[in-house]
Specification:
Shape: elongated
Strand content: 15-25%
Number of helices: 3
Structural class: alpha+beta
């Protein structure tokens, strides 16, 4: 069994069992997946989003702004990973501070990663 660690392929066997796989990258929101390893080869598609890229389309744009606005106004709630991605301030909630930071990023006034 092979697995990826720090972008390098490792030929280290992984014992059968249940694991939590954590995927992270600078400027992206870390994501965890539950993985059950057995005797068969295992392949998983995983996905992480840029901070603020709520839609997951690879860019921070008006679509993300609308999704954040809908969450704050109560007309479209974000949950789980999407909630973490929209929490650009990192304080555990999506509020006016996150909205301002996202809007300023889209307008080119400031960068979410500074």
């Amino acid at each position: 069994v092979c697995y990826m660690q720090d972008g390098k392929k490792e030929d280290t066997p992984v014992n059968a069992g249940n694991y939590t796989m954590r995927i992270s990258k600078e400027n992206y929101v870390t994501r965890e997946y539950a993985v059950s390893v057995g005797d068969e080869a295992l392949t998983m598609d995983v996905e992480i989003h840029l901070i603020g890229d709520i839609s997951g389309d690879g860019t921070i744009n008006a679509r993300d702004k609308k999704m954040m606005y809908n969450h704050i106004s109560g007309s479209g709630r974000l949950e789980n990973y999407d909630l973490q991605v929209g929490d650009v301030s990192g304080d555990g909630t999506i509020n006016a501070r996150d909205k301002k930071m996202l809007y300023n990023h889209i307008a080119g006034i400031s960068n979410l990663w500074e």
